[in-house]
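Retro notes, item 3 of 5
We never archived the inputs for the nicotinamide-adenine-dinucleotide complex last cycle. Fixing that now. Sequence and ligand:
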Amino acid sequence: MRVMVLGGDGFCGWPTALHLSAHGHDVTIVDNLVRRRIDDELGAGSLTPIATPAERLAAWHEVSGNPLGFVELDVAADYHALTELLADERPDAVVHFAEQRAAPYSMKSPAHKRYTVDNNVTATHNVLVALAAVSPGTHLVHLGTMGVYGYESVPADLPEGYLTVTYPDREGRPRSREILYPTRPGSVYHLTKSLDQLLFAFYARNDGLHVTDLHQGIVWGTQTPQTGRDPRLINRFDYDGDFGTVLNRFLVEAAIGHPLTVHGTGGQTRAFININDTVECIRLAVESGDRLDDGRVRVMNQLTQTHRVSDLAGLVSSATGAAIVRVANPRDEADENALAARNDQLLGLGLDPILLTEDLLLAEVGLARRYADRVRRSAIPAVSYWNDSRRTAAATTEPDHSAPAASDIAGGAR
Ligand SMILES: NC(=O)c1ccc[n+]([C@@H]2O[C@H](COP(=O)([O-])OP(=O)(O)OC[C@H]3O[C@@H](n4cnc5c(N)ncnc54)[C@H](O)[C@@H]3O)[C@@H](O)[C@H]2O)c1
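Structure as it came back at the time:
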C-alpha cells in the first residue's frame, strides 16, 4: 500500500514509518520538523542522538534497500501544498501523528495553549478537508489518546470510543442510541484530541471519509527491530519534564542515579503500550481499512496494560535500586483513580501484547546509561503548572518555532 506518515520524524512516527516500510508498504514521511525546534526552545534534546532526516533516510535505504519519501511541510500552515501532495500521491492510507503531543507543554503559558490548539485542530481539519477534496477514498488513521476519556474512576471497562445510552422519549418509552463517549480532557492537549473526534465524526458522515481514530495509551520503550539496525536509525527518547512520559522518565532517572519523581501520591492509574506494539497496531489499523463501516469512525483503544504510577516507580526501584521521591503534582488531576479499558478490536486484528517485565525495563535502563552523559538533570523536573498562580513568569514567553528547520534534508527530500 502507498502510505503517507504525517509527523513521521517523531517518537512514534519514525519507527512506524520504518515498520510499514519493512512490511512492504511504500512510505512517504511528511513533517515540518517542529519537534526538533521545540528541543531547542526547551533546551532539552532527545536522550538518544537522533540523526538528521537525510541521514535517517539514507541509512534506511542502505540497510533495507527500501526508499522512503520525505516532504518537509507544515500540515497546519501549508494547506495548499498538502492538498497538492495528496492529489499527486493519492495514498491508500494517511497516518496522522502531526500534532503537538505534550500535555505539560500545552499548559505552559497562554501562548503554548494557543499554539497547541491552532496547530493540532488546524492540522487535523486541513487533512480532512484536503482528503475530501482530492482523495476521498484514502483511509485516515489518526493517533488520539486514552486521555480523552478522562480519569474519573468509572465502575466499567472503558468501551472503544462509543457508549450506548438509554433515555425516555416524550411518552416515557425507553430509547437508546450510540454516542461518542463523553470526553473529559485534562489539559489543552487532551482538549485538541477531543475536538479532533468531532471533526472525524462530521467528515465521516458528511463526506463519507474512512477514518480510524486510535486512542493510544502512554508509550514506553525506545527501539524497534528496524530502528536498531543502524545507529543512524535510532529513535528519539524524551525524558524532560514536558515531553518525557512517566515510565521513560523513571527509566532515565534510574539510569543516572536521580530519584524517581512521583507526582503527588502516585495513585494515578494510566494506560500504557510498548513502542513495538504501537507500530504493530498502526500496521494492523492501516491494513484493515477495508473493514470500516460507512459513515462511522472506527475507534480502537490502543493500549495493552494499565498501571498505577506508584507501582511503576516501585517496579523500577526494585529492579535498579533507585530511590523514590514524591514531588508536588504540577497537574490538576485526581490523586487516585481506577482505570480499565477494552482493547478487543486490536486484539481481534492480531495484536500480541508485549507486557512490562523487569528484563524489558532493565534493557531500557541500559540504553539510558549508554547516553547518560547527554542528560540535562535540570530538564527533568516537570515545572509546567496547570494552575496559573504557580507558573513562573519565564514560562509566559511565546514559543518560537520560526528557526529554520534542519537544512540538510535535501538529499532525501522529494
Ligand atoms: N508518545 C506518547 O506516549 C503518545 C501517547 C498517546 C498518543 N500519542 C499521539 O501520537 C502522536 C505522535 O506522538 P509522538 O510521541 O510521536 O510525538 P512527537 O512530538 O515525537 O512527534 C510528532 C511529530 O509531528 C511533527 N509535527 C507536529 N506538528 C506538525 C505540523 N503542523 N506539520 C507537520 N508536522 C508536524 C513534529 O515535528 C514531530 O516530528 C501524537 O499525535 C500524540 O498525541 C502519543
